[in-house]
Amino acid sequence: MITIRDVAERAGVSIATVSNVINQTKKVSPDTASKVRKALKELNYVPNFMAKSLKTNNYNSIGVIAEEVSSFNTPPIIDAICAYFDLHGYTVTLCNLRSYSHSEYDTALLHSSLNLLEASRARGIIYVGANSGNVSHIRHVIQSPVVFAYCTASPDDHTVTYDNFSAAKMAVQYLIRHGHKRISTITGSLDQEFVHQRIMGFRAAMVDARLSLPPSFITAGDWSYDLAYEQAGRLLSMPDRPTAIFAMNDPMACAVIAAARRLKINVPEELSVIGFDDRSCSAYSFPSITTLHIPLYDIGELAAQSLLSILSGEDVDLDQQLSCNLIERNSVGDAPVNKSK
């Protein structure tokens, strides 16, 4: 491990001089400062912020609680959080609640994580959800300043997420611009609030275009490939089947394409498919899937910025929603003439 003494020896200066350059505590001549910075770069020196905190009693530590680090959304969010706080001289302690490993919410594990963060003198916490659901039920156990990322809490809490309503509406409007009128959706789990926001966006686009929407065209899924495959087969076997299907995540969109292939329905010539999330499977599917990109890195970065602003006593908007982007690939085409009515 490279120490401040190694840097001082390389630069030919005292340890105190190196410390003054790093911490900008005293004025150092430009030539000397240049030598120190060169040595820092050559040795790839990383300041020990924890040691500095112990010495100054100023703990620049931040806690991150992730519901599930293996969830597709979590790594980019955490990467952005760590990059931002590293740039600003903070250490980050990460706790994983492993929500996919527990049938019920593990309150004990949450308390254990909070105790760990308290011991590390974390000045604030970012709570990263595994989905866009509401986590207001756990707010009362978090006493530190907190920002919720990729999830929602109470109206009085700081949250950073994305606009589900507008994203779903954008997807359906894109299909409508391609001439589609018979548009179906395979939703996620209906017990999740943000799924209903997407359904409302779907309906709004259809209403704005004055298009009819048979109740059977809104089909409940559970985010899984298997159920989406089953539901897509049912939709595509209807006498007046849809010419386009909006699947509310990319694995379900892949299932729709597989079901269409089994029924010898060509995508996108006879059926258009659009997904949600912009996961890697959407890019490598055949055909590649047009989808909605969730700005995960931006969510993490904005959450970090917001927490640092809160700790500095600045006013921060409570509900911050970022926009999704449409990624055009090869799964959407113009509606077949004989099926668009």
Explain this structure.
This protein has 341 residues and is of the alpha/beta class. The protein folds into 3 domains: 1-36, no CATH class; 59-162 and 296-322, Rossmann fold (3-Layer(aba) Sandwich), CATH 3.40.50; 164-294 and 326-339, Response regulator (Rossmann fold, 3-Layer(aba) Sandwich). 42% of the residues lie in helices and 14% in strands. It has 12 helices and 12 strands. It has helices at residues 4-11, 15-23, 30-43, 49-56, 74-87, 107-119, 164-177, 193-208, 225-236, 250-262, 280-284, 296-311; strands spanning 61-66, 91-96, 124-128, 146-149, 158-162, 183-186, 218-219, 244-247, 272-274, 291-293, 319-322, 325-327. The strands form 3 sheets. Strands 2-1-3-4-5-11 form a 6-stranded parallel sheet, with helices on both faces. A 4-stranded parallel sheet has the order 7-6-8-9, sandwiched between helices. Helix 1 crosses helix 3 (30-43), helix 5 (74-87) crosses helix 12 (296-311) and helix 9 (225-236) packs across helix 10. 40% of the residues are buried. The model has no long low-confidence stretch (mean pLDDT 90).
